[in-house]
Amino acid sequence: MPLSRADQIRALLKSIETGEPEAIAVVNQAKYIQHNPQTHEGSEGLETLFKRLSLTNPKVNIVRAFEDGDFVFGHTEYDFSTRRIGFEVFRFEGDQVVEHWDNIQARHGPNVSGHSMVDGPTEARDPDKTEANRAVVGEFVEIVLIGERLDLWNGFFFGDTLIQHDAHLPDGVENWRTSFARENQNRKRYETCHRLLSCGDFVLAVCEGFQGDLQKSFYHMFRVDRFKIAEHWTTVETVPPREVWKNDNGKF
To answer: Which of 96, 128, 227, 238 is the most exposed place for a label (fewest CB within 10 A)?
Structure first.
């Protein structure tokens, strides 16, 4: 029985650790579009790159991987020279991957509520609610995060109940809302939601904005329960200035 797309991506990412070349066949390297601005495109085949990386004894743990149409989105722990947490997004054409985005930051935590950046449920539930849950998160992102309608924030949650995996925040809706509303030069400002990927009760929002003067890529994963947001994971990455990009495809 052929592997699912999600399992093929699990094998692909794990091959960074093992150096095994077979899993890389899922990538159409002739058409592959790389959106990590710090990665060269076309200068080194993935088989060679992953083999070279494997010699540094990296550890790769794919915590979650979900499918949404032609997209697979994953949540991954990396331990190279430093420990990092990443979201990975792959686009398929037919049987092969042709495009890739990611958002990776240093691992911190656990937070004061005892949650790590990756723990919690790993299997999607309620597949029949995929589109409804995508809509819930889409409204939250557009109205609250981008629109900054903080007066409508609490309507997306069950009271003050929220399991929070942000390394810098405790559980609770009000803690997140207060942090978001705080007036200072490092306040996050959201401008665009580029993509909403959904599988059952999990939804990943890919957003662009600023924190202070720095352009940022904000990835937020939510678990939705009975059409309310119940759990939240995130990574934040600074978008490097255009003059140091190693490919011309853009972060988003």
So the answer is: 128
